[in-house]
Amino acid sequence: xxxxxxxxxxSTTTPSSGGGxxxxxGTHHHYYPPASSYSSYSSxxxxxxxxxxxxxxxxxxxxLLVIAVILVVVLAVKPKKPEFNLQQVGVQYMGISPTxxxxxxxxxxxxxxxxxxxxxxxGIKYRESRFTIMYRGIPLGKGTVPxxxxxxxxxxxxxxxxxxxxVSLLQADAADLVRxxxxxxxxxxxxxxxxxAKIRVMGFTSPGVEVSVDCTLAISPRKQSLxxxxxxxxxxxx
Length: 238
Prior knowledge:
By secondary structure, the chain is α+β, with helices and mostly antiparallel strands. Helices cover 24% and strands 47% of the residues. The radius of gyration is 43 Å and the shape is elongated.
């Protein structure tokens, strides 16, 4: 007996045209959003990027405008550095005491009066300034001038008080100090410092400038008085 192969035939069910929405075997449904949703999202993103670019350009323009206005005002004002002059030096006290054969102490109290002239059309803002008094390059003490403002076309009086309280000097420096005081009656001291100032224009403050102060003083310990003074400001000697 000869066997015949059995062939299975798949039947396909076709939904009826007038049926009540029965489930169909072997078919998958995919949801595709409407094309209008993609268009709306793309339009919103483009609008947001455009808004950010506009804000960036606006702020950049305003910043450049402010800088341009400041430059125009500065060029019109033509700011200059303040002019300093040493008017007076008062020696309140100076004492030198040898402690051993190779050391000595120095005490000092002096007052220095400067004038600052502002010839600009605008005001000047000064920051706190510090001054150092030295003997042969050795720091002895410091003086401080508080921060202050100066109006246009005015002259400001600045007083600096420098006190030295029993600072010790050793060996060669002590011997030089004792010799200068006892034999020569002349002790030379140096006062140095930087005065920082900024120009104020329409509420804005310009970059800072510095005026270097370098003064040489000669004091008589016996007379407790000043016998010589010379000051330089930014290389200008007066």
